[in-house]
Each structure stands twice: as structure tokens, then as C-alpha cells.
Write a structure and sequence with these properties.
By secondary structure, the protein is an alpha/beta fold. The chain has 12 helices and 11 strands. Helices cover 37% and strands 17% of the residues. The chain has a 7-stranded parallel sheet with strand order 3-4-7-8-9-10-11, with helices on one face. A two-stranded antiparallel ribbon has the order 1-2.
Length: 358
């Protein structure tokens, strides 16, 4: 407990303005023994001014696009238990995206859709079907993991049903949906082919689905996972093109558009982000980036407790903000995706208490 007391003391003294911890003289000794002599500490809080104000949706969640790798798994979003748990997280954004969003193609089938008039209580998933889907998902994860390891992703076609289930889930859970569009649909001159996205937006508008949009996921890795190279400046132009499409829609004219969802700044990723902002900053409402602390396939418990590893978020955040401020200082910066370890997480660590430090 003495170590915990010192940790809290250090945090309040050096990590935050507007806080004053009385009784700091105990830190001057060679040990924490002084705390036993005077265990009562007083914390004074200056509440005369707001230090930082955040959006009520500051903490938000992502449903990985791999759930749509077979459309039947999207039915899990009808689970009443899942909806109840998600409702406790509201208000928040619900982002649908990830690596496989850039391999998804909208293929309307007209017969595959939900009735927009269905109430939240009438779309429950039968218990037997929920159990079956959960069992099948265990095997599906093995297939997805193999694709991930081989960097060989198959094209996934989804129908109106996927969009309907996503919107129903977010709407019934009190979450604001952000849908990630496929940026790897390219034309002969390597600009974005927007025809499929246009088709999807038209369908969503016909159903009056109020939602926001992203385009592409971690463009810095396009070449590695799809052998397609898209530079930052061209990606920015693609976002401008998407914003133009949205401006022609009555429903999405003032809708949210976020990007480029670049990986944490390293090597060419900084240049990619800078050049993206040069051409596309005016199109987006917030600049998004992703942060992971460690590689899930090569990490340890020590990494999860290492202060230098834990500090990387603050360091990388400053780097991203520096890049954004140099081009468009008025633009908000969002951490669009984060977790402990990339590559599907670290088995026995990412799903345990210790990951809470990250």
C-alpha cells in the first residue's frame, strides 16, 4: 500500500494541473517509512475552472469487420444480452471496421433485409441459434487467423442484412454508428472507385439510417496486405471525393467523415499522414490514428507492466498532434482504434486484468 500511495502522490503532483497534494515532504526521505508517521494526507482540488472537457462519447467501441466474413454471424447482433451490455456503454460511437473492411463489397439482394419498422424487442435472437453461432464462430476465428498470418484476404460480399443489423444494434443500444468503407476499390489510375460506396450510401439513405463514415483502415499497410500502394496525397483526394458524394445527399450532407485511420507514427507513416492532410484535411471532421502497445505474437507479462511501453501512447499522441498541428491546427485528433496488442491480441494477456494498464 505504501508504494500505491507514492504512485498516487506522484501522479497528482506531476501529471495534472489544478491539483495540490499537501504533505509531500514524505518523498524527501530515503524510504516510504515516513508515511507511517503521518498516514493522513489531504488532497486539495481546485474546482474553480474546467481543466479539460471531453465529448460524452469519448470512450467508444469497435465491432471488427471480420464479423461479416460470413453474414450469418452478423445475427449475433440480435443477442439481447449483447444489446443490454452495449446499452450500458452509451453514449458512444460504434465503429464498424478493421482490416477486412477493405475487402468488403456491398452486393444488394433486396430480399435480404430487415423491416425498418421492427421494434428493438421484436428482433431478438433465439437462444438455440445464438449458441450455435457462438460455437461456429470458434472455427471461423481459426480461418480468419490463417488469413491474417498469410496476409491473404478473400473478398467478402455483404447484403442489406449486414447494414440493417448494424443499424438496428446501434440504434437499440443508443450508439452512434460509424461505417468503414472499402478504400482498396481502385480505378486504372489508382484513384478510389466510389461506385460501390455510392450504392451503399443510396441504400442507407433510402432507409433513413443516420450514420457517419470512414474510408480505409491503416492505409500504411495496403501494400503488405493487398499489394496496392496508395500515397497519402491520393488518399486525401479520395476523401474529398467521398465528401462530395455525401454533400449531394440530404441525409449525409452534414454527416461525419473521419480518417485516415493510419497506424501509429513510424517511418513512412508520418509522411503518409502529412501528405494526406495536405490534400484531404478539409474533407474530414477529425483526424484518426491507431495505437497498439506490443506485437501480440512476441510479447510478455513484463511488457504489459513496463512503464516505457505504457508511456508509448502519450509519446505517439504528441507526435501525431505535432504533424496535424503543422498542417491544420484546428483539426481534432481522435484515437480511432487501440488495444493492448496487434495481431489479434496476446493470448493469456490481452484478455486478462493486466491488459487494463494499457
Amino acid at each position: 500500500m505504501k508504494a500505491v500511495s507514492l504512485l498516487l502522490l506522484s501522479f497528482f503532483c506531476f501529471g495534472t494541473e489544478g491539483f495540490c497534494f499537501r504533505g509531500q515532504s514524505h518523498l524527501n526521505g530515503s524510504s516510504a517509512a515516513g508515511l507511517d508517521q503521518d498516514p493522513d494526507q489531504v488532497l486539495d482540488l481546485d474546482l474553480s475552472a474546467v481543466f479539460r472537457r471531453v465529448d460524452p462519447r469519448f470512450l467508444s467501441v469497435t465491432i471488427d469487420a471480420s464479423l461479416a466474413s460470413e453474414e450469418r454471424f452478423m445475427l449475433l447482433l440480435r443477442s439481447q444480452k449483447l444489446r443490454t451490455l452495449a446499452r450500458a456503454l452509451s453514449p458512444a460511437f460504434l465503429r464498424f471496421g478493421g482490416t477486412r473492411q477493405d475487402f468488403m463489397v456491398f452486393s444488394p439482394q433486396r430480399s435480404q433485409h430487415l423491416d425498418a419498422a421492427e421494434s428493438c424487442s421484436s428482433t431478438r435472437l433465439p437462444w438455440w441459434l445464438e449458441n450455435q453461432l457462438k460455437e461456429d464462430w470458434i472455427q471461423q476465428q481459426l480461418v480468419l487467423m490463417k488469413e491474417e498470418q498469410q496476409k491473404s484476404y478473400r473478398k467478402v460480399r455483404f447484403t442489406e442484412l449486414t447494414v440493417d443489423l448494424l443499424h438496428s444494434f446501434s440504434n437499440c443500444s443508443g450508439l452512434d454508428l460509424i461505417f468503414g468503407l472499402n478504400a482498396l476499390l481502385r480505378t486504372a489510375d489508382n484513384s478510389w472507385n466510389s461506385s460501390n460506396a455510392h450504392l451503399l450510401l443510396q441504400y442507407c439513405e433510402s432507409k433513413q439510417y443516420n450514420m457517419s463514415w470512414e474510408l480505409g483502415n491503416e492505409p500504411n499497410s495496403f501494400e503488405k496486405k493487398a499489394k496496392i500502394r496508395v500515397d497519402g496525397y491520393q488518399l486525401g483526394l479520395d476523401f474529398v471525393h467521398l465528401r462530395k458524394i455525401m454533400s449531394e445527399s440530404k441525409l449525409y450532407r452534414n454527416g461525419g467523415l473521419y480518417g485516415p485511420d493510419v497506424g501509429q507514427p513510424r517511418d513512412h507513416r508520418v509522411d503518409l499522414l502529412d501528405s494526406f492532410l495536405q490534400s484531404g484535411a478539409k474533407a474530414i471532421d477529425a483526424c484518426t490514428w491507431h495505437h497498439y502497445y506490443v506485437n501480440g505474437r512476441d510479447t510478455s507479462l513484463q511488457d504489459f507492466l513496463d512503464p516505457e511501453v505504457l508511456d508509448t501512447l502519450a509519446l505517439k499522441t504528441k507526435e501525431v498532434q505535432k504533424t496535424v498541428n503543422s498542417v491544420c491546427p484546428e483539426k481534432s485528433v481522435w484515437l480511432g482504434e487501440t488495444s493492448s496488442a496487434f495481431g489479434g491480441g496476446a493470448a493469456g494477456l490481452s484478455d486478462t486484468f493486466v491488459a487494463g494498464f494499457m
